[in-house]
Amino acid sequence: MQKSFLMMQDLCLAQMRRPNDPTLREWTKFWLNEEFMDFVAHNDLPAFNHRFSVTVDTTVQSDLTTFQEVPAPCDIIKLYSAKIYDAVVSPPAHTPMKIIPLMEFERKFTGENPADGEPDTPLYIALRRLEGIRSATLGVAAFTVESSSTEDTGEVTFVGYADSLFQTQTKVVATLNGTSTVALGSFYEPISLSKEGATVGNIILKRATVSVVEILPWEVSAYHAVYQIYPYADQTYTLTGLYKRRPPLMSSNSDIPFGVPDNALEILIQGTVMKGLQVIEDGDWQVAKKLQDEEKINFLRSLRGIGEEQDYPRVEFG
Asked: Quick one: 56 and 41 in the same domain?
């Protein structure tokens, strides 16, 4: 049976033997989402596989010493496949691209100025994370910030260009008011958004009513993702592919861990219990770690169809 966010919190706190500890409950919310993210990152689940399509053109970047960058989906955590579509040739061609780690990409191609090379069909691609907010000059607009959780009341710091010439950076420090909208002022372009410490929910920056960027609970500043490609494009192409997206975090008590099979929920719960017991210095955290490891093995066995799920003897908390 699928368990709600509140049910999972109660189960965790009961095993920590602290059912009425409000501080530990807040941390339990954080840890459950952290375990949720970790589980999705280490397992390929169909619910998180999405396709993308973006135009690659010959527009010259302001910094010619960098590799050509193409905007990536804001919720991407892993790139599975990529192809370059060339509509000019006959018949139109889909050319597979080679996905390589960022460090290998830069080691392989650094030393030959990317802007000096002969433009051609891009054949190599790497995913890169950049601090700050992706530039998108759309004119002046009102910017606001809010949280996805009513519990968040900490400070956030926003920096943006308030002048049309993009010469003066203006900093605004604001206090969150849960899910209520907090005004930051009018800006032509956002630059960065950061927060003080961990939060329960996602911190959401909006341009008018449109979400621009989000900061996850365990991160302190906003970032955006780009694809680095090589060589520079010699014409306009369409880049298509498949990627794994970030899961929607749980904030309301009725939320469920989207896309996670029922037989994997104990992995999230025992991982959270382990962290809670470590914080309160209870030696039973090792029991929770053992239980989580057993649940992980059971889940992997069920995916691979290796017989029935192993019926391990359960270890009870003393």
From this structure: no
Residues 99 and 234 in one domain: yes
Residues 77 and 128 in one domain: yes
The mean pLDDT value of the chain amounts to 87
Q: What is the pLDDT of residue 111?
A: 66
pTM of the model: 0.74
Number of domains in the chain: 3
Q: Do 188 and 294 fall within a single domain?
A: no
Mean pLDDT throughout 120-139?
85
**Residue 251 within a domain:** no
The reply to whether 41 and 65 lie within a common domain is no
- Confidence class for position 311, pLDDT limits 50, 70, 90: very low
- Decide if 253 is inside a domain: no
pLDDT of the residue at 65: 53
Residue 94 lies in a domain: yes
Are 96 and 241 members of one domain?
Answer: yes
Q: Which tens digit of pLDDT belongs to each residue from 36-81? A: 999 998 888 889 999 999 999 887 555 555 688 899 988 898 999 9
Domain span at residue 79 reads 46-132+225-245
Q: Three-class SS string for the chain?
A: CCCCHHHHHHHHHHHHCCCCCHHHHHHHHHHHHHHHHHHHHHCCCHHHEEEEEEEECCCCCCCCCCCEEEECCCCEEEEEEEEEEECCCCCCEEEECEECCHHHHHHHHCCCCCCCCCCECCCEEEEEEEECCCCCCCCCEEEEEEECCCCCCCEEEEEEECCCCCCCEEEEEEECECCECEEEEEECEEEEEEECCCCCCCEEEEECCEEEEEECCCCCECEEEEEEEECCECCCEEEEEEEEECCCCCCCCCCCCCCCCHHHHHHHHHHHHHHHHHHCCCCCHHHHHHHHHHHHHHHHHHHHCCCCCCCCCCCCCC
Compute and round to an integer the Cα radius of gyration of the chain. 23
